[in-house]
């Protein structure tokens, strides 16, 4: 059956017959995301991603070698993402 707490009752009312298993499956799927892209990953360093001059230079070299580059987090868009390119 299910837990008698309000959250589980609400989930069951929304046709989730086993909220605990749904939560476990969601966790399993999140855990499959690569650490670099997974904001919940504990050991991967997600901070300090600003593009310093040396990082920009590394990006130029990485593009020439067709390897990974560091995304520029300062890019913003208010409309359509396609308009960025």
Can you characterise this structure?
This protein has 85 residues and is an all-alpha fold. The chain folds into 2 domains: 1-45, no CATH class; 47-85, no CATH class. It is built from 3 helices and no strands. The N and C termini lie far apart (51 Å). The model has no long low-confidence stretch (mean pLDDT 78).
Give a summary of the structure in a few sentences.
The chain is mainly alpha-helical.
Q: Which key terms come to mind for this protein?
A:
3 helices, single chain, 2 domains, 39% helix
Give the overall pLDDT as a whole number. 78
User: Structurally, how many domains make up the residues?
Assistant: 2
**Distance between termini?**
51 Å
Task: Give the oligomer, counting copies of the same chain as homo and different chains as hetero.
Answer: single chain
How many helical elements?
3
Radius of gyration over C-alpha positions, nearest whole angstrom: 21 Å
Low-confidence stretches: none
Q: What is the helix content?
A: 25-40%
Shape: elongated
Structural class: mainly alpha
Can you summarize the main beta sheet?
none
